[in-house]
Design brief:
With 159 residues, the chain is an alpha+beta fold. Helix content is 36%, strand content 27%. The chain has two domains: 1-36; 42-135, no CATH class. It has a six-stranded antiparallel beta sheet. The protein is globular, with a radius of gyration of 23 Å.
């Protein structure tokens, strides 16, 4: 191997080593801060309605939705663990449920607003004039439509 070729290879290895380190330096804060932004911590919550269905659904669906009765503690747990999504996207459609609970929440960051949670674990609300979507599917409440959400081959616990 010529000296020139050897110098080029050594320089390439050195640059590659620094590039890997630079990538890690940029990646670590992303993972740390993205996990912090996944959920919001509740400081106060008011539950207005549970066990109801969106307007326009059949009597059978409305009857089934009466089984969706999350407790205040379950709803606090939901918001403390739910991922915050700017857009509902496919989750909003894939995990649609006619069964809802509604209320008001204040988070420890000071944001406050009205919320709606579907029995599937998809929720949404307006907080300080910002629309947010939430998703957390491992809830302990009774879901009348459990085992009807996942598309394709995705399995659901307990189904």
């Amino acid at each position: 191997m010529s000296i020139t070729k050897g110098l080029i290879l050594a320089k390439y290895r050195m640059l590659n080593k620094y590039m890997v380190n630079a990538k890690l330096i940029y990646a670590i804060p992303f993972f740390v801060f993205s996990n912090l932004a996944c959920s919001k911590e509740v400081s106060n919550i008011e539950v207005s309605k549970v066990g109801i269905a969106y307007k326009g659904h059949s009597e059978k669906e409305k009857e089934g939705c009466k089984l969706f009765r999350p407790t205040k503690e379950q709803i606090i747990n939901y918001f403390n663990k739910a991922k915050v999504l700017k857009y509902g996207g496919s989750i909003e459609h894939q995990y649609y449920s006619p069964c809802i609970a509604t209320g008001m929440v204040t988070f420890k960051d000071g944001s406050t607003g009205q919320w709606t949670i579907q029995s599937s674990g998809f929720g949404y609300g307006t907080f300080n004039n910002e629309a947010l979507n939430f998703f957390y599917k491992d809830n302990k409440w009774s879901d009348p439509f459990q085992c009807t959400y996942a598309m394709d081959d995705e399995s659901q616990p307990g189904c």
